[in-house]
Specification:
It is built from twelve helices and 20 strands. It is of the alpha/beta class. It folds into two domains: 90 residues, Urease, subunit C, domain 1; 308 residues, Metal-dependent hydrolases (TIM Barrel), CATH 3.20.20.140. The protein has an eight-stranded parallel beta sheet with strand order 5-8-9-10-11-12-13-14. It has a seven-stranded mixed beta sheet with strand order 3-2-1-4-18-19-20. Helix 3 crosses helix 4 and helix 7 packs parallel to helix 8. The longest helix is centred in the first third of the chain and has 16 residues. The chain is globular and about 65 Å long. The mean pLDDT is 94. Bound molecules: zinc ion. The site of zinc ion has 6 residues, from loops.
Length: 415
């Protein structure tokens, strides 16, 4: 009998889409969820014999495996820098050990030929089922709001480069961050149109654009998709909200509130104050929020110097920054721009909950909502019959104890 065909029973406080079942149970078989609900209902459904082996576990949470849409690496591996799929795998496994069972590997702005090469390499990992696909962060981004992106590699919108990257990624390029005000992005014949035609979701971000420019891109993309687009780490890498120069943030929040946008939040306590995260959940609802890590190579490993594509990054006390001489205009002189996160997605969920976001909402924004963005609702991100048996078990402080992927235990040693 292969590991995948085994019946696995997991018991604990089960976190469902809108409720927590105190004595809950998940029964998996063949790598899929067969049952998820209360022990009482499980007994009624005939799962008594399987349940007998598994005692109640009131001090644990049982969550769907987490889904991270924005992740540049971890465990010392930097997805924008890999030249082989094997080099990227430690980054995938670093996050998987902490409960992220589905992720998009994020690139950063680089020379076109580098982007095409990296897309081809990471597509191998997607074909092998290790990652769900790729997120390209750039290169059609704002110079002023570039954050950690290399200014020399930013460029105007190019539908040719979109086509080259999509071809190299063999169907696995899933999202691309674009700034609406960069020439060649918004409007007929632009990058946003080419992305939608290629089946790639445009994500608005790293933008110094006006409210009107953001609104125009959102309107264009949602009309073409018939579905919401995303905003890349709302607030970070954007012109700040000012009441006389509202910029893109107000437009994104308004779009999210009416269901036309899903906003990423790096709710790690470093990129955003927890009160900002809590307020956005209150404003637009968990179904329009995706919690992400924006993790880079240092996630899960020591402080030090790391690469993020063409840029060098210094990590000090878990905060990654571009060293001061290259600081972007508008950032405090003593601190370079933040250059990605060092948290795992479960840490972001914990931080959001501590900041006042209800547990079921924080979990939904790290599971079912990103799954919906990927078109994987019912497949990942929720413990429902038929879904992949991707499960994260934590203690009552949301520290990972056990991870299953396709119903098979992931080694969490060292997590
Ligand atoms: Zn990023």
């Amino acid at each position: 009998m292969s590991a995948m065909s085994e019946v696995v029973v997991v018991r604990g406080r089960l976190v469902l889409a809108s409720s927590v079942v105190d004595d809950g149970v998940v029964v998996t078989s063949g790598g899929r969820v067969e049952f998820a609900g209360s022990v009482v209902d499980a007994l009624e459904a005939g799962h008594g014999p399987a349940l007998e082996q598994v005692p109640p576990a009131p001090g644990t949470y049982v969550l769907p495996g987490l889904v991270d849409l924005h992740n540049h690496g971890g465990g010392g591996a930097s997805f924008p820098d890999v030249t082989t799929a094997a080099e990227a795998l430690p980054g995938v496994l670093e996050h998987r050990r902490h409960g992220t069972t589905t992720l998009l590997a994020s690139l950063v702005t680089a020379q076109p030929e580098v982007l095409v090469q990296r897309a081809a390499v990471l597509a191998e990992l997607a074909e092998a089922g290790e990652i769900e696909g790729l997120h390209a962060e750039g290169p059609f981004l704002s110079y002023r709001r570039r954050g950690a992106h290399n200014p020399a590699d930013l460029q105007e919108g190019s539908v040719e480069l979109v086509a080259d990257m999509a071809r190299a990624a063999r169907g696995y390029l899933r999202t691309m961050t674009v700034a609406p005000e960069v020439p060649g992005v918004t409007g007929p014949g632009g990058v946003a149109e080419a992305l939608v035609e290629a089946g790639v979701l445009p994500s608005l971000g790293h933008t110094d654009g006006t409210t009107e420019q953001a609104e125009a891109l959102i309107e264009q993309v949602t009309a073409a998709l018939g579905a919401p687009m995303t905003a890349t780490h709302l607030f970070n890498g954007m012109r700040p909200l000012h009441h006389r120069q509202p910029g893109p943030i107000a437009a994104c929040l308004a779009a999210a509130a009416r269901g036309d946008m899903i906003v990423e939040l790096i709710g790690d306590g470093v990129h955003l104050d927890p009160a900002t995260v809590r307020s956005v959940f209150d404003m637009v609802g968990a179904d329009q929020v995706v919690l992400v890590t924006d993790a880079m190579a240092a996630a899960g490993v020591a402080d030090g110097r790391y690469e993020l594509g063409p840029m060098s990054v210094v990590v000090h006390e878990g905060v990654a920054r571009i060293p001061t001489p290259q600081a972007a205009p508008g950032t405090p002189e003593e601190e370079g721009p933040i250059a990605g996160g060092t948290a795992h997605l479960v840490d972001v969920v914990r931080c959001a909950v501590r900041g006042g976001v209800p547990l079921v909402d924080a979990v939904r924004s790290a599971t079912a909502v990103p799954a919906r963005v990927l078109g994987l609702a019912g497949e990942v991100g929720a413990l429902v019959p038929g879904a992949r048996a991707d499960i994260l078990v934590t203690d009552d402080d949301l520290r990972p104890l056990r991870v299953l992927r396709h119903g098979v235990n992931v080694d969490v040693a060292g997590a």
